[in-house]
Structure prediction request, 419 residues.
Amino acid sequence: MATVVAAVEEHSSRVESPRLKELDYQQVCRLGQVMSEDIRICGRSGSHFPILVIPMHKLVTMVRKNLAAGHILVRDVRLNGGAASYVLQSGTEKAEYNDIDLIFRVDINGVENGSDRVKEAVLHSLQEIHLDHDDKPLPACTGFIEDAYIRKMVKVSNEADWWSLICLTNASGHHVELKFVDRMRRQYEFSVDSFQIELDQLLSFYSSEKPQLESSCYPKILAESVYGPFDTALSHLNRKLIATNSPEQIRGGGLLKYCYLLARGYRIDSSFDFSFTKYMCSRFFIDFPEIIQQYRKILSYLRDHFSRDDEKRSQFLSILYDVVQESTVCLMGQERKQTLDLISSIAQAEQLAHQSSGCVRFGPPNSHWCEGFYNKHLFQGIVGNIPTNINRLKYEFPSLLFSPNTVPFIYYLPNIAHS
Prediction:
């Protein structure tokens, strides 16, 4: 009895913090909807690995169990990112989200090879999910599973940060990002993506005999804004305002997130210092100094945050072009023009792809014949040989360094006939 009373008192004292808020019944229902949704973890194209289907809350429970088996303590599990904003936002217009971001707050102190144990816990969970649906086991070698189902892995380990990210692949672009955090200096970019919803009470509720959410009986769940006062951050979300703290600490991807928010109809809070865009541009070029790195990052962001037919793609690129042009102070003129030309060429590729009903891909050249359009001029060439009219391209895009290995090409899929 004393333990229960102590838990209630701790919950009450935490709610009094301005960074925390208890979810109401409607918000808990939306959270339950997100966590009950079946997610599809897809094998890499051509790998012949089956699609794994599991409710989100069962995946979280399974990963947590396997982390415990690897002697990694999980302090709590939280929903983050766009899905958390969707749960919390009021009004009829809900926040859009593509990926589902989950944070496992872990304790790595004294754990040897902690990041390897985290990865093994996730891969073992994927094996278990497969066995629940199919008697034929996945390959025992986790390397095959990693190659088939893991889209991206990141590991950061230094004095200020210890965290790792494992992204599970979804063919429709609705990836599941599992982030395992012992310590993290910066946990958000803007106030509207600073929300973290604690899931432990909901997971315990799902483990009960008859988990049915009712207005008279639902778990008490807390949400936190790591930006600062919860009500302020929620006001920014509901009014679609852009604000942040210490913009110089935002990593390079923050520039793209800022342009994404503008393309989605957000606007800068009038009380905010507009010069923060200079910090974000500088950090972008620090993290992605080479033109090919910038190219890959922009294309990756387009693929992950916009559907193929989303009209906002071109608006995002237009906004990115304007921000880089107006707020970049850390580059020489030639370097800045090179990046601006790159953004322009990607925008032209997007327009061409849209006009061609998706028959065009934009990316580095492959071993096939390439057909590329720059300002509606067509060239042909084979990788390893300089395109016949490369001089024309140099004239039209003088700041780009043209090489068959580095120049962004627009190319048609093989075996497609064109007029």
